[in-house]
Amino acid sequence: MVLVPPRPRRTQVDIIIKILAVASKGATKTALVYKSNLNFTLVQKYVDLLQRTGLLDIVQTQLGYTAYKTTATGAEALKALRSAMNFVLEDELTALTE
User: How far apart, in Å, do the first and last CA atoms of the chain sit?
Assistant: First the structure.
């Protein structure tokens, strides 16, 4: 029997990055739930936070659905968060090889 180590839990930053990325082209709440692998309650908490901070907007689709779209500020934040995460991961990998 092969034991697979447990996957580490995602950080709040990881979740925010995923939601902002999924919403960059516009996404319904259901799409956010499925693509970010969260439940509706957690997605709603993150959506509320991201809306309050101006990183996410509510938009109406042509079919009349409510969707969420990453704002220009949110896109900048997403880019900065990804860059920071890459820096941290690169630093950790360097430390492992030394």
Answer: 32
